[in-house]
Every structure is written in structure tokens, then in C-alpha cells.
Design brief:
The complex is a heterodimer of chains A (114) and B (116). Helix content of chain A is 0%, strand content 49%. In chain A, strands 2, 4, 5, 6, 9, 10 and 11 form a 7-stranded mixed sheet that branches. In chain A, strands 1-3-8-7 form a 4-stranded antiparallel sheet, with no helix packed on it. Chain A is globular, with a radius of gyration of 13 Å. Chain B has 116 residues and is an all-beta fold. In chain B, 0% of the residues lie in helices and 54% in strands. Chain B has no helices and 12 strands. In chain B, the strands form 3 sheets. In chain B, strands 2, 5, 6, 10, 11 and 12 form a 6-stranded mixed sheet that branches. In chain B, strands 3-9-8-7 form a 4-stranded antiparallel sheet, with no helix packed on it. A two-stranded antiparallel sheet of chain B has the order 1-4. Classes of the chains: A mainly beta (114), B mainly beta (116). Chains A and B meet through β5, β9 and β10 of A and β5, β6, β10 and β11 of B.
């Protein structure tokens, strides 16, 4: 079955450390997205990518970085510059073209500070 | 800018009760509208969608009608089950010409708790 795989499910970060969250999809979607979810809040967009080797900042990109070297993969790095990284991170993908296309989500990675 | 407003939760119901979760939106143009569901510890799953005015999306007994005149997309179910307990998110998708992609804007989510 096609889908989006995020790993790890739980991740702990020490002060001053960079950590990378993995996102892989086999849906053959061009566009991929990273969201942050805080308790009791909706999702906020961190970064998105429409095609390989291209990505754009979302609404809360500071302290994060991404790469898109392969169509299937869109890893997110939470850098030490992100002072409040504790959150639930969700990766999504969608076909690039066609208005109204829904996004498909992975099961998320929960990041906590040690 | 575009936005989505959902009723605050939690919504607590007995099994077999009728469910309504209100959702209103503000948008330029003609967005598509979605309801997503999130079970504990999981990602979001698409529940239903509507792409134009007066469309009704439906799935698993849930329904929502795209009402342009009231800018609403309320979620309803005639008889809820314990297994429907989850967080429900209303969202709109507008084509962003500047970015050339479909941006999803979410409401804050409404937690539903159904007890036997």
C-alpha cells in the first residue's frame, strides 16, 4: 500500500543538538510538506517542496532546515537555533497540480527536549 | 488572509447521539474544504472533502455541505460511536499563485469524546 512513513516515532534532543526527522513517501507525489502541531492548536506549515531540489519556507521556518534530493524523501532538521522544538511534527504530500487536492499525512514524530 | 474557525471543544456525547461540529471560513476566491480526523498518537486522515459550493462530502456516516452564502462547512453525524472519539480539523485549500501550490489552512481542531 502507498503511504507516508515518518521515523522515528519519538525523538529526544539535547540542548545545542541538531536532530533530523525522516519522511519517505511512495505515493509518487511531487509536493511534500512539514507541519508542526502544538497541543490544542492547529497545524502550522514549516517548509514545503513542489519538486526535487526546490523548497520554500512556510509560516514558521526559523530554526529548521530541509532538503529534497529525491522525490520520495523530504527530511527535516531541527537545529539548535529552534529554541522551543518540543512538538508533534507531521509530514504530508500531495499531487503538485490540481486545485483542491487533499494532502496525505504520515503518523508523525514527537520531539522532546532532554 | 484566509482562515478557518472551529467550535471549541471538547465535545462530549453519549453513544448514538447526533454530532455537529461547526466550521466557518474566510477566504478569497473559491477554496476547497476538508475535514480531517486525528486519532491519538497518529497523523491526520482525510475524512471528507467538497470542492465547490453546495457540494456535500460524506464518508463513514459523516457529512458536511459547502455553504458559500454562510461560509460554513459544518460536520455532522447522525449517530456517533465510541470509536469516533478523536480530534477533528476543518481545513481549506486555496491555490497560492505566489507559491504555485495548494496551501492548506487548518482550524485549531475540535476534540470529540464519545462515551458508552
Amino acid at each position: 500500500d502507498g503511504g507516508i512513513t515518518q521515523s522515528p516515532k519519538y525523538l529526544f534532543r539535547k540542548e545545542g543538538q541538531n536532530v533530523t526527522l525522516s519522511c519517505e513517501q511512495n505515493l509518487n507525489h511531487d509536493a511534500m510538506y512539514w507541519y508542526r502541531q502544538d497541543p490544542g492548536q492547529g497545524l502550522r506549515l514549516i517548509y514545503y517542496s513542489q519538486i526535487v531540489n526546490d523548497f520554500q519556507k512556510g509560516d514558521i521556518a526559523e530554526g529548521y532546515s530541509v532538503s529534497r534530493e529525491k522525490k520520495e524523501s523530504f527530511p527535516l532538521t531541527v537545529t539548535s537555533a529552534q529554541k522551543n522544538p518540543t512538538a508533534f511534527y507531521l509530514c504530508a504530500s500531495s499531487p503538485r497540480h490540481g486545485e483542491g487536492q487533499p494532502q496525505h499525512f504520515g503518523d508523525g514524530t514527537r520531539l522532546s527536549i532532554l | 488572509g484566509d482562515s478557518v474557525t472551529q467550535m471549541e471543544g471538547p465535545v462530549t456525547l453519549s453513544e448514538e447521539a447526533f454530532l455537529t461540529i461547526n466550521c466557518t471560513y474566510t477566504a478569497t476566491g473559491y477554496p476547497s474544504l476538508f475535514w480531517y480526523v486525528q486519532y491519538p498518537g497518529e497523523g491526520l486522515q482525510l475524512l471528507l472533502k467538497a470542492t465547490k459550493a453546495d457540494d456535500k462530502g460524506s464518508n463513514k456516516g459523516f457529512e458536511a455541505t459547502y455553504r458559500k452564502e454562510t461560509t460554513s462547512f459544518h460536520l455532522e453525524k447522525g449517530s456517533v460511536q465510541v470509536s469516533d472519539s478523536a480530534v477533528y480539523f476543518c481545513a481549506l485549500s486555496g491555490f497560492m499563485f505566489s507559491g504555485g501550490y495548494n496551501k492548506l489552512i487548518f482550524g485549531a481542531g475540535t476534540r470529540l469524546a464519545v462515551h458508552p
